[in-house]
Amino acid sequence: MRNSWLLAWREFLERWNNRSFRWMLILGPCLIILAVYLLLLSGNQGANKMKVLIADPANLLDGKIASNPIENVQYFFYDDYVELNPFKTSPKFNEFDALIEVNEKVLINKKVFLFYKETPSLALKMKLKFDLERRVEEVMITQFSSMSEEDFRKIKQPLNIDFRNVNDPYGQSSNEIGWVGFTLGYLMMFFIAFFGTNITRSINREKSSRISEVLLASVRPHQLMMGKITGNWMASLLQLGIWIALVGFGLFALKTFIIPDFFTPEYLQGVQVSGSQLKELGLEANSPQNDQVLLFYQRINYLWLLPNFILFFLGTYWVFASFFTVMGAMSGDHSDGQQFAIPIWILLSLSIFAGYNAMAFPESDLTVFFTYFPWTSGMVAMIKLAVGVSPLEYLFLLFAWIIQVCVGTVLVILAGRIFKQGILSFDHKASFRLLAFWLRKS
Amino acid sequence: MIEVRELTKLYHHKVALDEVSMIIHPEQVFGLIGPNGAGKTTLIRLLNQIIAPTKGFIKVNGSFLNVQHVRSFGYLPEERGLFREMKVLDHLVFLGKLRGLSTFESKNASLHWLEKFDMTAWSNRKISTLSKGMAQKVQFIGSVLHNPAILILDEPLSGFDPLNVDLLLEQMRNFKNEGKTVIFSTHNMNSVDELCDEVALIHQGKLVTKDQVLTLRSTYKSGNFRVRFRGSKMAFAHSLWTWFELISCNELADGVYEARIKSRGEYAFNEVFERLSEAVKLEMMEEQLPSMQEVFVKLVTHEK
């Protein structure tokens, strides 16, 4: 045990002394924050203010548009056709940023062209669409029906079918919260993939530098494997912890100081319209801001989810890492590492698929299988735990965790044996035949 | 005492070691010699439990070889490895701790040995910056840090310059004087002559012979004598008659010669001395034993 710890600490220090590891501790979260910022910014690119000329020769819109005009869009009406060339070149139209062509067929084909000089931002596009659509609807109501505008809005309001489990009639275990579990599971897989490959690489390196023979005179092969797994686990946990803390802080700072506007309900809706306008369009049920606030600040039980995340991260890391050690122990040279990455990536992808499957079909036979299959159970458990489980279901998840630990332990012992058999034959070409031979010998 | 009994190791049906049995007595320097691929490294790896025997067993002081024994050995493998990114002192302290020393003990022992090998100034350098010779010294230090009672060295002298070979041989001699057992494999027969009490020759996986160095050299002596005499060269040559062959005779000073003769039969030293002293005045006479190099060649050629 002492030697395993010594090896683990050495492995951890090797990671820590690696300059790129230390840089990534800080740089990784910064890149994530930057990516989030760019993602949010991408929707806010382009012109945010416009003077729009509406060419309405038939005077269909009657010179009126939008009951609640917003400062960043100004509409002007023109009661004739406007050709594109004069619009581009004539000083008369110089002040306008966009031209909307509303011809008489618009009430039939509901097709309108907007020609812009500078691409409008996504928010502005949505605003323009909203304004025009609303005005055209008003005209249509007046022309084609005796219905009141209010009735029309009621009719237009989409029917929301909320699919709920009979055991969860109040929708406590919603899809959104399932995504939280999936994200945690994905994070788990990301770190496992990142640090797991380090294990394989480290074993390869020690085999090729022949230091393993010196080490094996002092420690047992499975202790060596354990040391590698634990050392990399410590490094991954440190990185994970720092990333979670820094990304959390970064997102908070981003929201509070840099882009507070991005978090208004209007922005998140993608339309810079007021809440009352959303209600008119029947979109209030889809307003994501409230759901997200509720989700992140009220519905997620962090005290329940985070300890379980650590527990299942341990189990899943263990079972994957043991597989990585088997791959490392089998490797005959560095090119084998790449070849053996394929089964590892298959398992990681399978785990992601299992996550999707568990969200879409939580009670399916396949989900049951994935719950107990050691390489997918961590991901499925995170989704189930996020969504909520009964005490009995939780016991089943713990049983799946025990399976992970047992399978991982068997694999580590196996890896040790393969390692010991294969240590003296680095530069061999690994094959299943050779593996079978080593296992038989050990 | 290490007892090796009918030790056999097969690699993919290829016999690397074939029923080798021997006893290695304590407090001596024991040499393992043999041509390349003879099975020396296999035997050493079996002694360190790096690999498991196909058949046979090893006993240390009467009990079967176990992990505790192996941890107490000092081991320098033939293909040496180091953690190239670690600093010299950190690497040594780590190895010492793996062998059961505390951090304090390990650090003290490391510094002691680094000083002994004139490497104190390098203790905080990364191993990757060391020359090959220095790296080998670090490897050697790593195998002796925990003051092992049994030291197993596989080709310890390979790659060292003559100065460092001397340094290493001196250390091995010191170990023997301290009552430790040193087992080492080598192709350097001069070091065997100089250092070993006992040797085992392994060839094609089989133990060809195992004996005291002096006994082996005596066994394979070829009747060569070196003689210094004063008198007539002709009288000396006549006295050899048909029993001896004169190989060379050089005049060292006026009337003083040194000759090398080879007997054509089995003659005892006294017999030769008597016969020659009748013809000339003998000043010195010694029987020339074959070097271990000659014994090695003779044995291996004979085996072939």
Strand arrangement across the biggest beta sheet of chain A: 2-1-3-4
Largest interface: A-B, 23 and 28 residues
Instruction: Measure the end-to-end span of chain B.
Output: 32 Å
Q: What is the helical fraction of chain A, as a range of percent?
A: 55-70%
| Most strands sheet of chain A | 4 strands, mixed
Order of helices and strands of chain B: EEEHEEHEHHHEHEHEEHEHEEHEH
C-alpha-based Rg of chain B, rounded: 24 Å
Could you outline the blueprint of secondary structure elements for this entry?
The complex is a heterodimer of chains A (442) and B (304).
Chain A: H1 2-17, H2 19-42, E1 50-55, E2 73-78, H3 84-89, E3 98-101, H4 106-109, E4 113-116, H5 122-144, H6 149-156, H7 175-209, H8 211-216, H9 221-258, H10 265-269, H11 275-280, H12 288-299, H13 302-330, H14 334-360, H15 365-372, H16 377-387, H17 391-422, H18 432-441
Chain B: E1 2-11, E2 14-24, E3 29-33, H1 40-47, E4 55-60, E5 63-64, H2 67-72, E6 74-76, H3 88-98, H4 103-116, H5 132-144, E7 150-154, H6 162-177, E8 181-185, H7 189-195, E9 198-203, E10 206-212, H8 213-219, E11 224-230, H9 233-240, E12 244-253, E13 256-263, H10 269-277, E14 281-288, H11 292-303
Parallel strand pairs in B: 3-8, 3-9, 6-7, 7-8
Antiparallel strand pairs in B: 1-2, 1-4, 4-5, 9-10, 11-13, 11-14, 12-13
Helix pairs in contact in B: 3-4, 3-5
Molecular structure report:
The complex is a heterodimer of chains A (442) and B (304). Chain A folds into two domains: 2-40 and 175-441, no CATH class; 50-156, Periplasmic binding protein-like II (D-Maltodextrin-Binding Protein, domain 2, 3-Layer(aba) Sandwich), CATH 3.40.190.10. Chain A has 18 helices and four strands. Chain A has helices spanning 2-17, 19-42, 84-89, 106-109, 122-144, 149-156, 175-209, 211-216, 221-258, 265-269, 275-280, 288-299, 302-330, 334-360, 365-372, 377-387, 391-422, 432-441, and strands spanning 50-55, 73-78, 98-101, 113-116. Chain A has a four-stranded mixed beta sheet, with no helix packed on it. The model of chain A is unreliable at 268-276 and 281-290 (pLDDT under 50). Chain B folds into two domains: 2-218, 3-Layer(aba) Sandwich (Rossmann fold); 222-288, Alpha-Beta Plaits, CATH 3.30.70.60. In chain B, strand 7 (150-154), helix 6 (162-177) and strand 8 (181-185) form a beta-alpha-beta unit. Chain A binds chain B through residues 3, 6-7, 10, 14, 17, 206, 209-220, 420, 423-424, 437, and chain B through 12, 45, 48-51, 67, 70-71, 73, 75, 77, 79-86, 94-95, 97-99, 139, 142-143.
